[in-house]
Structure formats: structure tokens, C-alpha cells
Amino acid sequence: LLDGVGGTNYLTQLCQCYEAITENKTAKLPLDLLFSNIALNNRTVDLESTQQFWRHQCEQVDVLDFPPPEVTNEQPCHQQLILHGHSLDQLKHYCRKQGITLAIYFKAIYGYLLWQYCQSYFTEQQHRFAIIEILSGRQRKQQSSLGCLFQQSPFLFEAKWFDGDTKIADFFYQLKKQQRLFKKHSPISMLQQKKVLAENRLQFFIN
């Protein structure tokens, strides 16, 4: 697997090799940079305890889906909302009052909107749904490496959080609790994530 930086590095090095061969030169690649970070990364991800944790967590995860909209034109849909100035200050004040970060606030909004948009596809047995959270990009020392070295992890929402009896403070508390729990088991590769999460035509991300 290659992320964007890894793919660019691979193509660059492939072109360098090809050019060297066509000129009857010896191709020189920085092998220490290419594979050492991948080997080091593999020692810290997909530990057996991590795989067991996510298999258990994802047992009752169902897929998210919604009716495909009727396409009336070929223009992509793009919505953007920029918060700044007084509005952003008010939001930060609200988050401090609730004891949460801006990241948790926006994650809560995103989960709620997905639940509203997709709930017609929920089954009676569905207890959880998953999104993929982008945790971090590459570290600076990994910029020349191949592989898929940015970090992402599943984040699970409990469907019961969205019923009419849940108070907003309790909802935020559950999100914070989940985040602390998942952070301990976040080193899981994209390949293992595909194995534990249900196959679906859609995947929802938050960055």
C-alpha cells in the first residue's frame, strides 16, 4: 500500500532507475530510507491485542448508506462553511464550558448528521456505525519512504446516543470516553481496518 507521498516517491525512484538503465548506469536508491521506516512501523501496528480489540468493537457495526440522489447535472456538490472572528470565539467558549475540544465538537456534529442522513438504512440490530478518522500525516523523517505511513483509525458511534433521551452533555462525555479508549488501540493498519469493518460502497472520513 502506498499513500500519496509514498506513491510520488515510488514513481520518482522508478523514473530514476529507468533513466539510469537506459544510460547504462547503475541505479542508486537510498535503500535505508525506502524500507527502514516501513519495518519500524510494522513493529508497532497490528499487535495481536490491537486486532482483538477492534474485532470485538466492530462485531455489531453495520454499514452506512443512503439512497443515491438523482443526478440532474454533472457539477459536483461542494459546501463550505468558514468560522472566524466572533463566531469562532463563541464556539470555543461553548466547548470550554462543555469540557471538550473543537475536534470533538465537530466530530459530534458529523456523527449526528450522518445518523440523520442514513438512518432509513439502519437495521433494528444495528448498534454502531463507523467513520474513519485521519489522525496524523507522515512524520518529517518519513518523507522519503515508500509505504502507507499516514495514520487513520476507525471511530465508532453508538446509535443509542442519538435517541431523544440523551442529553448533549452525556453525548459529549461518551465521545470523550470513546476517544480515550480508541487512542490506546489506534496503531492499526489500513489492511486490518478493511478486515474488521463491514464492506460498503461508501466510506465516511473526518480529518
Briefly say what this structure is.
By secondary structure, the chain is of the alpha/beta class. The chain is built from 7 helices and 4 strands; from the N terminus they run H-H-H-E-H-H-E-E-H-H-E.
Walk me through the structure:
This protein has 207 residues and is an alpha/beta fold. The protein has 7 helices and 4 strands; from the N terminus they run H-H-H-E-H-H-E-E-H-H-E. It has helices at residues 4-22, 31-44, 48-57, 85-98, 102-118, 168-183, 190-196; strands at 61-62, 128-136, 151-158, 205-206. It is globular, with a radius of gyration of 21 Å. The two termini are 20 Å apart. The relative contact order is 0.20. The mean pLDDT is 81.
**Separation of the first and last Cα atoms:** 20 Å
Helix content: 40-55%
Structural class: alpha/beta
What best-fitting shape do the alpha-carbon axes yield? globular
User: For the residues shown, what is the average pLDDT?
Assistant: 81
- List the helices and strands in order: HHHEHHEEHHE
Beta content comes to 5-15%
Based on DSSP secondary structure assignment, what is the total number of beta strands? 4
Largest sheet data: 4 strands, mixed
Number of helices: 7
Radius of gyration from CA coordinates:
21 Å
Please supply descriptive tags for the structure shown above.
207 residues, four-stranded mixed beta sheet, 47% helix
